[in-house]
Amino acid sequence: MSLYTRLEQRLERNSDDAGPVRGSLSLLRIGMIWLAANLVVTTLLTGTLFVPGIDYGLAILLIIVGTLVGAVVLVTVGNIGTRTGLPTMALTRGPFGTRGSLLPVSANVVILMGWSWVQAMLAGIALDFLVASVTGFSNPVIWAVVCQTIVVILAIFGHEGIARIEPWLAGIMLAIMAFIFIAAFTTFTPAEFQAIPVDESIGYTPILVLDVVIATAISWTVLSADFNRFAKTSRAGIIGSGVGYSLSTIIAMSLGATAISYVVLSGGEAIPFDPVTIVEPFGWPLAVVIFTSVMATNTMVVYGMVTSVVNAVPGAKVKFLPTALILGLISIVGATFFGLLEQFTTFLVTIGALFAPVFAIMIVDYYLVKRGSYTREILNARGGRYWYRGGVNWLAVLAWVVGAVAVYLWTWVWPTPIGATIPGFVLTFVLYLLLSLRERAAHEAEPSEHLSREPVTTDA
User: Fold this and answer.
1) Could you say which of 36, 58, 135, 190 would form a disulfide bridge with 170 (CB–CB 3.0 to 4.6 Å)?
2) Helix ranges (DSSP H) in 85-101
3) Do 129 and 139 touch, CB atoms closer than 8 A?
4) Per-residue confidence at 436, pLDDT binned at 50, 70, 90?
5) Residue 352 placed within a domain
6) Is the pLDDT at 449 greater than 90, yes or no?
7) Pairwise CA distance, residues 356 & 424, whole Å
8) How many angstroms separate the CA atoms of 91 and 411, rounded?
9) Mind listing the pLDDT tens digit for each residue in 11-48?
10) Where do the TM regions start and end (predicted)?
C-alpha cells in the first residue's frame, strides 16, 4: 500500500472528509489551537497601522474592545459547528440553500487563498531577513515558497496534525513575545509610549481602528465551525475559542502597536505593515515569531480552504487529500505575488463587507428561525427543506447583498461615526429576521429529525 493511500485512509477514518464529525478535543486543546491561530504576523502587523495615527493607549483600548465584540460572533457561529458536527461553509446551506451556499463558499475559498498568500509572503520576508543577516543571500520570494510548502505539508495531515502542533507553536511564540514586550518597556517607559505625538495625516481614526479590529474577528469566523466542530462539548468550544482567540488577538495586535511605537521612540521611520521595520530593532526573536506564526496560522487557513471545497456539495464525495494537494499547489504559486501586500487594508475591509452579513444571517437562521437545530436534510444533495426554490433561498441572498453593499458604502462613501462592520451586521440581522418570520412560524409547527453528531455529546 502506497504512502498516499495510507494517508488518505487515515484522513477518512478521522473525519477530514465530508459529513458530520464526532468531537473529541478538550477545552484546553481548543483554546490552544485558537491561541496559536491568531498569534500571527498579519494580526501583529495590523497593530502597526494604528500608531501614531492615534495615541498608543487608545489603540490598545480599541484593540481590546474590538476583539471582544468580534469574538462574540466567532464563538456563536463556532458553536453551531460544535452542535451539528459540520464546518462553517457547510452550515451556510441552512440559510442560503443547498445551491445558494455555493456563493459564500466560493467567496470564502478565494479570501482564504488570499490570506495564505499574504502570510506566506510576510514569512518569506522575515526568513529572508534572518538568512541575509547571516549569509548575505537575499531572495524573499524563494523563502515565501519554502514557508508555504511547509504549511501545505502540515495541512495535509488534517485536524489531528494541527491539534498536535499548534500548542507547541503557541508556547514558543508566547515566550518570545514576552521577551519583546519586556525589551520594549525596559528601554522606554509606558509614559513615553503614551506621549508619542498623534499624526492625523496617516488617516486612522478611532472608529476606523475599531472597525479593522472587528473585521479581523470576522475574517477568522470563516474557520470557527471548522475547528469547533471537533470540540467535545459546546462549553469546550465556546470558552476555548473565545478565550484563545481573544488573548491571541489582543497580544499580537498590541505587540504590533508596541513594536512600531518602539521604532518611533528610537528615531526610526515608522513604515506600517512592513515586517522588516519592526524586525530590525528586535532582531531574530521577532523574525522567529513571524515565521512560527505563519506555520501555525497558515496551516489552519489551508485546511479551511480544503474543508470548504470538500463540504461544498452534499454527496459529491470530494476527497480531502487530493483537494489539499491541488489547493496547496495554488497557494504555493500565489505566494510569489508580492504586490498583494500593498492592498492588505482593502483586502481586510472586503472580508468584513462580504462576511459580516453572512454570519448575521447564519446566526439568525440557526438560533431564531430554525430554533437551535438543523434537520438531517441539510446533508441532502437535492430536495428537502434546505432546497428552498431551485436550491436557493433568495431571501438570504437578498439580505446578504443589501448588507454587503451597506458595509461598502459606510466604509468608503458615507463613513458612519460607529464604523461599518457593526451597523452592517445589525442591518442584515434585522432584515433577514423580518424576511424569515413566516418560515420561523412554519418551522415551529413541523416536527423533524434534528441533525446532531454521532454520538451526541452534551454539557453536564
Assistant:
1) 36
2) 88-91, 93-96
3) no
4) very high
5) no
6) no
7) 7
8) 28
9) 565 545 556 887 889 999 999 889 877 787 788 889 99
10) 32-51, 57-81, 102-125, 137-157, 169-189, 201-223, 243-264, 284-306, 318-341, 347-369, 390-410, 416-435
d(CA 107, CA 101): 10
> Can you give the residue range of the structural domain that contains 137?
23-340
Which set of grid coordinates corresponds to residue 153?
505539508
Cα-based angle 151, 120, 68 (whole degrees, multiple of 5):
90
Which range is most confident: 27-41, 253-267, 311-325?
253-267
Task: Report pLDDT for 276.
Answer: 84
* Domain contains 246: yes
pLDDT at 454: 47
Closest CA to 105 of 304, 309, 325: 309
User: Does residue 248 form part of some domain?
Assistant: yes
| Rounded CA separation 30/36 (Å) | 10
Residue 72 is assigned to a structural domain of this protein: yes
Give yes or no for residue 400 having a pLDDT over 50. yes
SS3 for 72? helix
CA atoms of 346 and 322, how far apart (whole Å): 32
**Nine-digit cell at 385?**
427543506
Count of structural domains within the chain: 1
Question: Cis before residue 52, ω within 30 degrees of 0?
Answer: yes
What is residue 231's three-state secondary structure? strand
